[in-house]
Design goal:
This protein is mainly β and 316 residues long. The chain folds into 2 domains: 1-75, no CATH class; 87-315, Neuraminidase (6 Propeller). It contains 1 helix and 28 strands. The protein has one helix spanning 270-279; strands spanning 11-16, 22-27, 33-37, 40-45, 55-56, 59-60, 87-97, 104-110, 113-118, 125-130, 136-141, 148-154, 157-162, 167-171, 178-183, 190-193, 198-201, 206-211, 216-222, 224-225, 228-229, 233-239, 242-247, 252-256, 263-268, 286-292, 297-302, 307-315. An 8-stranded mixed beta sheet has the order 22-23-24-25-7-28-27-26. A 4-stranded antiparallel beta sheet has the order 1-2-3-4, with no helix packed on it. A 4-stranded antiparallel beta sheet has the order 8-9-10-11, with no helix packed on it. Strand 9 (113-118) and strand 10 form a beta hairpin.
Length: 316
């Protein structure tokens, strides 16, 4: 997102339409959307914000909503920017069942098991699952006040973020029991690892590279395509030397060169997302990328998706 994200429970961005009429896209629990036009609400989907009051740009915003100043790019992000960037279709080659009530925030494979973190206050947890069947083997719930976010394992420690509380946990990957905690500035969206360092997104175009010892930022990566920043970088995965990232509000995965931050390819998950929505009407955004290095395969899913899909890339 352009600029720093507010610490309100819900946020708004200005949308300029072709008719130049001001609209406001209001964000609830990082996935729920409300579109307000003029002084009223036009449509809503899975919004989880708190009640309160406010207004922006002459429009009466729903309770608790505030406009983010200085934003000019209308969500969803207008990517891809360049037709020269390679495009890939995602062909389904296999799948396992996925909990249709899971508000997915993180997904990865470690030591032959599939791990998932879920969000929403009062519903957040970490799960260890059977990679072949998707069956949940063990799970640990977060305290009800926390909104769980991304997870990753480095060595024998699992790191877990929360959305706006600037607090994370270190867990045992086998038992999921808490071992330690850590803090960080700003929002936490996703984590992945190259085996040594952690990579953390916060919804902006910047990815932090973190030393797990002390959770210290050692450098940052500015994600761009054709020289323009790519905002809303969301769930991350390390895939054979590349950073792959869901872009929030888009059914696209960016393939990012971690040395430069340049997007070197786009993967279109649109048809898979459409099929998921047909199977489960409450399906939300694509969110969840896991690379199984042992079998060299990529798995993807989304919030409330009914399955986790193994994909094969086809150059378009």
């Amino acid at each position: 997102m352009s600029g720093a994200m507010h610490d309100d429970d819900v946020e708004a961005r200005t949308v300029t339409t072709s008719s130049s009429r001001a609209r406001f896209l209001l964000r609830g629990a990082k996935g729920g959307l409300v579109l307000a036009v003029g002084g009223g609400v036009l449509a809503a989907a899975a919004c989880g914000g708190d009640d309160g009051g406010g207004s922006a740009g002459g429009a009466v915003l729903p309770p608790g909503m505030t406009q983010i100043p200085g934003t000019t790019e209308a969500p969803p992000p207008a990517v891809p920017f360049s037709p020269a960037t390679p495009r890939y279709a995602a062909r389904e080659v296999g799948s396992v069942p996925h909990d249709p009530d899971a508000f997915t925030e993180g997904l990865f494979v470690h030591d032959g098991a599939l791990y998932e973190s879920t969000g929403l206050e009062g519903q957040s947890d970490v799960r260890r699952m059977d990679l072949a069947t998707g069956r949940v083997l063990s799970r640990v719930e977060l305290p009800a006040q926390y909104f769980g976010e991304g997870i990753a394992v480095v060595g024998d420690r699992l790191y877990q973020l929360t959305w706006k509380d600037q607090k994370g946990w270190v867990r045992d990957p086998e038992t999921l029991a808490p071992l330690d905690s850590f803090s960080y500035a700003g929002e936490g969206w996703s984590l992945t690892t190259d085996g040594t360092r952690l990579y953390m997104s916060d919804g902006t175009s910047r990815v932090r590279v973190i030393d797990p010892q002390g959770f210290r930022v050692v450098r940052t990566i500015d994600v761009t395509e054709a020289g323009r920043p790519v905002h809303y970088v969301n769930e991350l995965e390390w895939v054979k030397g590349e950073l792959w990232a869901n872009i929030w509000l888009k059914d696209l995965v960016a393939r990012i060169d971690p040395a430069t931050g340049n997007v070197v390819g786009w993967i279109d998950l649109g048809p898979l997302a459409a099929a998921a929505r047909q199977a489960n009407p409450k399906v939300d955004v694509t969110n969840g990328i896991a690379y199984d290095a042992a079998s060299d395969r990529v798995l993807v899913t989304g919030k409330y998706w009914p399955k986790i899909v193994e994909i094969e890339l086809v150059r378009q």
